[in-house]
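Dear support,

Our group has been running a series of protein-ligand predictions, and this particular one with flavin-adenine dinucleotide is the one our PI (initials K.S.) wants archived with full inputs and outputs. We had some confusion internally about which version of the output was final, so please treat the block below as the authoritative record. The input we submitted was:
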Amino acid sequence: MLIKTAIVWFRQDLRLQDNPALQVACSRAENVLPVFILDPALPLGGASRWWLHHSLASLARSLAHQGSQLYIAQGPAQRELEHLIATTGATAVFWNRCFEPTLIARDTAIKTALHDQGLIAESFNALLLREPWQVKTKTGTPYKVFTPFWRSHQAIGPMPPPVAATPLKPPPPFQTTPLESLQLLPHIPWDSGLKETWVPGETGAHSRLETLVTGPLKTYHELRNLPDQPGTSLLSPHLHFGEISPRQIWHRVQKSLQQGEVPSGMGSVTFLNEIGWREFAYHLLYHFPQTVDTPLNPAFAAFPWRQDPKGLKAWQKGMTGYPIVDAGMRQLWHTGWMHNRVRMIVASFLTKDLILPWQQGAEWFWDTLVDADLASNTLGWQWAAGCGADAAPYFRIFNPITQGEKFDPDGQYVRRWVPELAALPAKWIHKPWAAPEEVLSSARVKLGVTYPEPMVDHAQARLAALAAYKEIAKRP
Ligand code: FAD
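Confirmed final output from the archive:
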């Protein structure tokens, strides 16, 4: 049955290619209205708001280029959709699924309400290679450990290909509010580092993928842990906002292997494994939605976390006195992104050296990361705190000095982000407090003045963390 007017409701799929909701709408309707609704049900951090603004601007340009136009709205999604249906006479709404618990509840209610009104409401998978419920253990339960999850995920069969593009259909006549009315950009301009680092939007996403395939992919397994190297894809914000899909990434990597653009080997296997971690994060979020703020391991509910607003602030500002931690926190503040190895180090420092709740770290990441993603952020923080699925056990505590020496051996990452230590020799750069006085003074470092003294002694903090852990470990 041909539909006169359909709405395509864009959410975490801000792209025209491999977009099943858009493709189905354009193949079944005469007029297609592309819509984005800024819904207060989805609280966004500052960096995500910045990204969203530019991503929507890019989507609007791409739509206009093909004779369409993006409708922008703000408010509860159901109210806004019903208003649009009433004003355009649309009889169908198509969207791609999101998996955050509040969004699942909202979307289910909207679908039911639209069906009750005799309208067509259909949703599709565009965010993941496989949906969270498709992968299960032999007994039908969800996985809690990555390796068997990923094995089982891959064993289901070939990864689905991207959907073919369909020419866009013209929208019905309508008046939209300007993107600026959403007020997503900061009032105080703190975003210069974001502007220097990123090109939000579908074109920027594909250019990152091409850079990966023609560059770091072949050495990904060797360089991905070195934060001063361009060894990873930087695709995470593009993936979060759906400017590119994991299907497109998966099949582009496979094509590059078949065409010999990259040698088959550990680089691409390790990279695709990371895409697997993203799938695993969504699997966990879907099956254990309480983990957004509650530890998956219930014993950790009684963990004696400290409260220390001053300590938290020092961590957030990159003023802990541990150079690798401070470099990571400053990279995050400046660019909206932090290298994965350093995310693990700073998260371990917050939860184990400072014994502050992982939720406080997750909140800061939520506000400052351009790739802030409820599934991956929750998995990452619970993993680092030792209370989640597939967790590094709590007693495995990262040493910020040896981690720095191992993964930033020349200190280049620290020099880049903590310029006040730039002149220190590599031998001391990860432990300036241990450097001889003459080394410090010739590098113009005055501890406690130009750079902080370490805010805790790692060896003692480690013992305190282990003692706190023993408290909950001995409970039944
Ligand atoms: P690449 O190494 O190129 O990996 C390719 C893609 O795989 C990434 O873009 C990402 O989508 C996925 N991926 C890689 N590692 C992981 C992982 N450990 N878990 C889930 N997916 C992964 N990632 C986010 O996208 N959003 C977050 O909010 C987030 N918070 C994190 C918090 C902590 C405490 C930790 C330890 C990790 C977090 N990660 C998060 C995971 C990881 O750090 C980032 O995905 C990665 O650094 C992004 O850089 P990239 O795109 O260059 O990754």
